[in-house]
Task: structure prediction
Amino acid sequence: MKPQLIHIDPKNIDLNLVKEVASWIREGKIGALPTETVYGLAANLDRQDAVNRVYLLKKRDKNKPSTIHIASPEDVDFFLDILPPYGYRLIEKFWPGPLTIIYYQKDSPQNIGLRCPSHPVTSLILKEALCRVIMPSANISGEPPAVSSEEIQRIFNGQIDFIVDSLPPSFKVSSTIVDLTLRSPQILRSGAIPEKEIAKVLDSKRILFVCTGNTCRSIMAQYLLKLYLKKKKPSLAEKIEVLSCGISASEGIPPSSEVVGLLLKEGINVSQHTSQRINKHLIRSSDIIIVMEKRHRETVIGMEALAINRIFLMGNFLKDYQDDIPDPIGRPSQYFEEVFYLIKEAIEEIINWL
Result:
């Protein structure tokens, strides 16, 4: 029986067609969906009959698991255990996109592969499917994957239920697969993302400074650390990203004028910096989190308990000062200077510690 060919214009997406295709997957039909890499065979993982058909058609080893495809990076929490910080940075940089991550399945001893494709039509279909969707490449195992609807029809010769014809794959090679379950993450399959780009993220570190409003203390710390790292440890500076945020910050607020002036004396222009509020992704993606006050530490732990061993109090880096770094907002300019020099001294110790 000839598969149903569904044309969906990526520039004018017909949501009714999207929902119809999604319902077919949910009901147990199998079909070919385009991604930015190659075509995949989509099936509802909770319909064993559909999964069996996919494996049979591909002549795929039944012991070889298939990657689950998700509609949005935010869906990762439904499927995977808490990742190491570099895992979230990989997601931040490459999702949606041609990266497959292998990690521990949430609430299960099994590992799974997870991918978030960037294809506009397929992403919507995955969102509307309301089920776990596997989508191994559309090919016979060991042969090149299909990159067009015509190739799909030739390979499977009427043995699948539908084909979505839309924006064709642009990479025309499979996704890059990274296994994060190992102590040293490994690239299991080279693909659309160059290995050096993956390695660059895996070799990097992220330091996050946290204060209250992200208009004063954390900004001072962020930019002083960036400056002094470049001066004193330039090779390390290339691998460390330094960010800042506030536990109660309003988004998009510029730094206080006092902070702008103090940092200008160091040759640092922060006039374009805007504040951001702390969130789970910032916490999870940071290797080191340095807070100005003990209450900031409690806020971070309250948002992500597993971050507890990565949180440090700024004052603990000072030899003769083990307390909170006080908030100078609303105080005289002299108070800003005192706080600035406390932070500057702590930054010197942090650089020695790194």
